[in-house]
């Protein structure tokens, strides 16, 4: 069951082409990831202390501002030693607008280096496949 | 905006200033902002450089279909611009691929590739690239001598 996060669009998300700007989709995903990591790990620090290693973004369909929300569906594709892969979809019931696959690395902010994913985190992430 | 300069490093170089507010709470440029820098470089290539070479039709209707980015080193705000080095890696029938590197004298911050599709905005569908567009894009794939 994917994590689902509603996103309220803003008219100013659109650029001169009259569509939500490419870069803005990533901010929707950013917010959904934050919510997923914080709630899935029971408020643990994985939400704050991760670094994005890479994104692969596919723009599928243009999105025009409307008051009805879109949502970001997120599943966990893979959990490694200190990194994990998420797959996100920005969509509504009719249309898939954008897909993003991201590799995140768990980070120790004090030591300034990556850290191992803990067993409780691993278990929580594995529940979101 | 700074004009594109053709250097031995890449067919297209764009000097991109950072904004202080690009940084997030970790004190590094937020992962979303790198895409803004790439967008600026792409606009410079297609809307500033291309018309200077007589091709004005790449300035509108260019749709990003795919963008992959790897974050290699964190980037902090500083007044000096970063350099976005870009080149065309594929010219297709109605689309082309770009490769970008965000660098400066010290470090390689990110590498990205993208696929851009030429759209006929009125018809609402992709259109073939013209001969002039293909020629210029091909030139932007070669290392200048």
Description:
The complex is a heterodimer of chains A (129) and B (145). In chain A, β5 (96-108) and β6 (113-114) form a beta hairpin. In chain A, strands 1, 2, 3, 4, 5 and 6 form a six-stranded antiparallel beta sheet that branches. Chain A has two helices and six strands; from the N terminus they run βαβββββα. Chain A has helices at residues 22-40, 119-126; strands at 3-7, 50-59, 70-79, 83-91, 96-108, 113-114. Chain B has a single domain (12-133), classed as Thiol Ester Dehydrase, Chain A (Roll). Chain B is 20% helix and 34% strand. In chain B, β3 (82-91) and β4 (95-103) form a beta hairpin. Chain B starts with 11 loop residues before the first strand and ends in a 6-residue tail after the last helix. The model of chain B is unreliable at 1-7 (pLDDT under 50). Classes of the chains: A alpha+beta (129), B alpha+beta (145). At the A-B interface, α1 and β2 of A face α1 and β2 of B. β2 of chain A pairs antiparallel with β2 of chain B, so a sheet runs across the interface.
Oligomer: heterodimer
- Most extensive chain interface and residues per partner: A-B, 15 and 17 residues
Please indicate the percent range of residues of chain A in DSSP E strands (runs of 2 or more). Answer: 35-45%
Segments of chain B where pLDDT lies below 50 for 5+ residues? 1-7
Tally of extended strands of chain A? 6
- Taking all Cα atoms into account, the compactness measure Rg of chain A is 15 Å
Q: Give the total of domains of chain B.
A: 1
| The CATH architecture of chain B | Roll
Beta-strand residue percentage of chain B: 25-35%
Structural class category of chain A: alpha+beta
- Note the run of SSEs of chain B as H and E: EHEEEEEH
C-alpha end-to-end distance of chain B? 26 Å
> Mean pLDDT across all residues of chain A, rounded?
94
Tell me, briefly, the overall form of chain B. Answer: elongated
Uncertain ranges of chain A: none
| Sheet with the most strands, sense and barrel status of chain A | 6 strands, antiparallel
| Cα-based radius of gyration of chain B, to the nearest Å | 15 Å
CATH architecture of chain A: Roll
Average predicted local confidence, pLDDT of chain B: 92
Number of strands of chain B: 6
């Amino acid at each position: 069951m994917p994590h689902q996060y509603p996103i309220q669009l803003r008219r100013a998300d659109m650029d001169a082409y009259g569509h939500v700007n490419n870069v803005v989709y990533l901010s929707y995903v950013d917010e959904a990831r934050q919510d997923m990591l914080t709630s899935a790990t029971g408020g643990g620090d994985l939400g704050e202390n991760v670094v994005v290693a890479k994104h692969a973004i596919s723009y599928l369909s243009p999105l025009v501002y409307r008051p009805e929300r879109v949502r970001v569906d997120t599943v966990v594709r893979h959990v490694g030693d200190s990194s994990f892969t998420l797959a996100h979809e920005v969509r509504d019931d009719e249309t898939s607008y954008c897909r993003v696959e991201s590799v995140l690395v768990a980070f120790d902010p004090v030591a300034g280096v990556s850290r191992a994913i803990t067993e409780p985190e691993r278990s929580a992430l594995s529940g979101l496949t | 905006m700074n004009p594109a300069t053709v250097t031995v490093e890449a067919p297209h170089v764009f000097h991109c200033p950072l904004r202080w507010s690009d940084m997030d709470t970790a004190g590094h440029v937020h992962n979303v902002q790198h895409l803004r820098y790439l967008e600026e470089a792409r606009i410079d290539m297609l809307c500033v450089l291309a018309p200077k070479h007589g091709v004005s039709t790449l300035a509108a209707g260019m749709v990003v279909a795919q963008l992959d980015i790897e974050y290699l080193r964190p980037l902090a705000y500083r007044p000096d611009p970063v350099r976005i080095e870009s080149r065309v890696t594929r010219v297709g029938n109605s689309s082309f691929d770009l490769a970008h590197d965000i660098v400066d004298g010290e470090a390689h911050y990110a590498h990205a590739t993208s696929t851009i599709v030429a759209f006929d905005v009125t018809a609402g569908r992709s259109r073939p690239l013209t001969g002039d567009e293909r020629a210029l894009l091909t030139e932007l794939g070669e290392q200048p001598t």
